[in-house]
Amino acid sequence: MTSSQERPTELLEPQPPAVLPPWHTSEREALQQQARRFATDEVLPVANELDPQKGLLPESLLARMAELGYFGITVPAEHGGMGLGVFEYCMVSEELARAWMSSASILARSQGLGTAVADATRREELLRRSAKGEWIGAIALSEPDAGSDLAGVSTRAVLDGDEWVVTGHKRWCGNAEAADFIQVLVRERDPEPGESRSKGLVNLLLEKERGSFPSGLTGTPIDKIGYHGFLTWDLVFDDVRIPRANVVDEAAASDEQGEAAKRAGFAAAQEFLNTARVHTAARAVGLARAALEDSVVYLQEREQFGHPIGDFQALRFAVAEMASQIEQSRAFYRQVAHLIDLGVRCEREASMVKLEATEMAVRVTNQAMQLHGGNGYTTERQVERHWRDARLTTILEGTSEIQKRIISDRMLPRSPLT
Ligand SMILES: Cc1cc2nc3c(=O)[nH]c(=O)nc-3n(C[C@H](O)[C@H](O)[C@H](O)COP(=O)(O)OP(=O)(O)OC[C@H]3O[C@@H](n4cnc5c(N)ncnc54)[C@H](O)[C@@H]3O)c2cc1C
Fold it and tell me: Membrane-spanning regions, if any (predicted)?
């Protein structure tokens, strides 16, 4: 019998492919290696300690991520960011999610989010803060009665002089209390007859102090089964006042009056969701990898019938299938991220990769739990964390069913009423 110490561990390291993919560069490889070291040495121990207590991402960890430039990966270099693309953003996020999903998720609340205001000087200041991790936000799209059906958002914004007055109920807003701002999708008018239901939706920027809620806003944390590291909030807006100029959409930058911005509200939320979906795919790959890597260790440690269980062919084949599925999803998310960076409109592909990678992560983490036997169903092993967190990925940023709807709607015409 071979002891676990003598058994090979090289499976834990990625094998260099025989032919490098076209998007491989030495800079990207260096960035990935740095992120992997950081995730392994600094994020994983914190996650292992804090996740079981439903703890939050510590300030010291956020400060280190800021130091490494991770909050500004996609912020242009002239505004203080790394000036890189969605590709690198997703690559780093995969590494972070391998350690703790929320550490990758917090990156999605910076990267220039909440900076597309009309005033150029203000925009520049916010971009610089975003790149430094000093402008980290929260996104309030969903409502109790508007989840998959975002066009059904009913939170109201009414103009009163130079301010919007916002009233309504948002649900599932991650990081709301700890944020510097909340980007809120609101309805400023009802659609005209014949207009799409999404007309009249606009994104507003609610600036706030970290660690509290402004006057009129009440937050209640939702007790989740996973995705610890930051809190997810139920938010009630009761006459919350937001300056009129705080319309945040791509179009706001070029339209002083904000009219184009208003028209772009729903489209901007959709655009945001495209990148978010590829980012979720990358996080899902990170979670699946975590489950696989933990399994490879466990299969060598655990012995039954006088053998490490990793000697049993059924379990070896499971490892092979898990690894193959992860590689497939990784190649796919990198391809879609690359397309986004090229400026290609790829809504369908963003949905496809979100669907495939997140369903893969659920399968792989579930398989990993099976490979761990009874020990997998305890809080003593990390595989349960990967499984809990992966389970969420098929739900947020559009459920798997909604991704299938988006994909099929772009392939197969149907009557508008179904
Ligand atoms: C932990 C967590 C964090 C989140 N963070 C945020 C956040 O920070 N900001 C934010 O705005 N939102 C956030 N969300 C909300 C998330 O995006 C929604 O939960 C998701 O879009 C699904 O909406 P819902 O929960 O209302 O489900 P529903 O829309 O009620 O769906 C219920 C079921 O019906 C199915 N379904 C609905 N419509 C259709 C259809 N037309 N065809 C087929 N099936 C359909 C769905 O797929 C699902 O299976 C978060 C959610 C969770 C759980």
Answer: none
